[in-house]
Design a protein that fits this description.
Order of helices and strands: HHHHHEEEEEE
Shape: rod-shaped
Strand content: 5-15%
Number of strands: 6
Helix content: 55-70%
Number of helices: 5
Radius of gyration: 57 Å
Length: 281
């Protein structure tokens, strides 16, 4: 649209420039025609009569009969006639019929109509540009609303994923507690001896199997940024632990965790499950 508008404007400027040149040429031709007519008329008058008229005019000036501005006009006209060549230039030897006032005013009228049409086209273009600007603003508002909703949806998806992972992992934490209890039962099974009770064979391999399973379990939890909380032998922390009971324990200070019933876990700064412990009294 802008290219079409620039093309029309350029054509109008070229046409206006061409018309102005034609008008100036017509005015020059008319001036030359008037000059040739005056030259022809004055040539028919005898030099003696012309000198006589000039002398009378000068005498009138001397006697203050003629106004000063008239005297100046006559002097300028006389100087202009004396500078004119006897033969007219071939480029300017034209007749008044080649360029008349009707043609000149017709061209100016056409130019005026062309300018009006160009103004209407510019008005339409400006109106279209304003509409496009309004549509652009509306599109920007829609895009801002869309981006805001996209961010809200992304945040909602993140919260759903985190909550789903947390609920799913809670069921597997009990399995880890079972592995830990099985690992802790190995030394007790070895220490029990009796006449009718045999010591389990390959107990070391069983203990190593528990250790390996617990390590793999913890590695899988670490992929979800879930870490177990140390509890046994640590000072009771109400922010991460829940005391189920208290008992006397030899060699342990009051408030120290004697036994962990179920382990605690956290994800970042959030506690997924509090450790259930027994505290020394």
């Amino acid at each position: 649209m802008e290219r079409s508008m620039d093309t029309k404007s350029s054509d109008s400027e070229k046409r206006a420039e061409r018309w102005l040149k034609q008008a100036a040429h017509c005015v020059t031709r008319m001036k030359e025609t008037i000059r040739l007519s005056c030259k022809t008329v004055l040539t028919g008058v005898s030099k003696k009569f012309l000198d006589h008229e000039i002398s009378e005019n000068r005498s009138a000036v001397a006697t203050d009969v003629m106004q000063p501005w008239k005297t100046k006009v006559l002097e300028d006209f006389e100087a202009w006639l004396s500078e004119m060549p006897d033969q007219a230039p071939t480029a300017l030897s034209v007749t008044p019929d080649t360029c008349d006032l009707y043609t000149l005013f017709s061209e100016f009228t056409a130019l005026k109509q062309e300018i009006k049409m160009q103004n209407r086209e510019q008005h339409r273009t400006l109106k279209a540009l304003n509409q496009i600007a309004a549509m652009t603003d509306a599109y920007g508002e829609v895009m801002d609303h869309f981006n805001e909703k996209t961010k809200q949806i992304a945040a909602l998806e993140h919260n759903i994923r985190v909550e789903t992972e947390k609920r799913t992992v809670l069921y597997f934490l009990d399995i880890r507690d079972s592995l830990v209890r099985g690992r802790a039962a190995c030394p007790a099974a070895v220490s029990k001896k009796g006449f009718f009770q045999r010591t389990p064979k390959n107990m070391d391999n069983i203990r190593d199997g528990y250790d390996m399973a617990i390590r793999k379990f913890d590695a899988s939890l670490a992929l979800l940024d879930i870490q177990p909380l140390a509890s046994t032998g640590a000072v009771f922390d109400p922010m991460t632990m829940k005391a189920l009971e208290s008992r006397a324990a030899a060699g342990m200070e009051k408030g120290t965790v004697v036994e962990t019933v179920s382990g605690g876990f956290k994800r970042g700064d959030e506690v997924l499950r509090y450790a259930q412990v027994i505290v020394a009294d």
